[in-house]
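Usage example:
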Amino acid sequence: MAKINDNFIKLPESYLFSDISKKVNTYKTEHPEAKVIRMGIGDVTLPLTGEVIQSLHAATDEMAQAATFKGYGPEQGYRFLTETIVKEAYLPLGIQLDPEEIFISDGAKSDTGNFGDILSKENRIAVTDPVYPVYIDSNVMGYRAGELGSNGKWSNIVYLPCTPDNNFVPALPQEKIDVVYLCFPNNPTGTTLTRDQLKVWVDYAIKNDVLILFDAAYEAFITEKEVPHSIYEIENAKKVAVEFRSFSKTAGFTGTRCGYTVVPKELLLSCEEGDKKVSLNKLWNRRQCTKFNGTPYIIQKAAEATFSPKGKEEVKALIDYYMSNAKIIRESLENIGMKVFGGVNSPYIWMKTPEGFSSWEMFDKLLKEVNIVTTPGVGFGPSGEGFIRFSALGNREDTLEAMERIKHWNIKK
Ligand code: MLT
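Running the assembly step on the lines above writes:
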């Protein structure tokens, strides 16, 4: 008899952002006159830049000629892109990588979600709380989460609270863990770790044989000097960390899809049986070659264009635009007396809900009273209760209008 993987039915019925989208659509059907402003899912709004579009067109033209047409590409990504990433994204940080340590993909969501394929079901997983839901859900699917308790926590997952009480810096776990997901700048809180704070984690991982899955999807938004752009800025991190990066928020690729994962060759993990150590780079390569046929050539050419001198300027302009939105949101919320975090090195602003409001109550209130969509903090985990997230990735006009609405709104009534 064919059977399903029961873990899928243990998961909440739908993914957080699908849930929110359903709620918003219902509201819009009931109130067709409402001008709803979306500050929920972190989706970009500015179009692709000139360099990217030019490169996409040129690559498309290549596909139209027999002499330059491309069929299957390398599963790991074209060398022109992996070499450019080594040279343009890492060398300026003083990090030396081999192009074979970079795997191009269709985005960090897929890679963070799929990486568990090459890890033992026996691993004890730790996540910061609140957390990007993909890390948890994919470990539920991968038999590592146990059961969901009434406290909103999975029994086999170790939660590391990140709240104002610890300045959003996760404490090292008290119990034995094998793998930890760290995302900095953080989604959803928008907060960061300094180099010294990240070093504590790298040292801990080396000492305790822990694998760090480091999601750096938002590194391009960093404005402060002491915040590292890559975990490999920390000495010896290549021995213990995989890094995920993305063109989505950086260069407007949420719909175009391109990201990459760095799996250092010196990163070795033990087998389930015996003492043998195996290279994760080899295993990830093996996994990708079986389950993935590579990111489309034209998309990789588009991604490459973001690293040309003009491409870099254009990307910087995109980031500056969104970070100006972030400043507007932060200041407007502060001006009405709200406590806010993030928004300085990230496009997310994490707001404490006023006394007496849960995350979902605040979400509903904002939707119904001022027609603004946010993301309820509790959707990211138990420690997100009592917070909501604003995304600064909307357009300026909507951001200003949303903040104007909030200014004239009695949030506490
Ligand atoms: C978010 O809003 O948290 C992100 O858009 C989710 C994602 O990148 O998948």
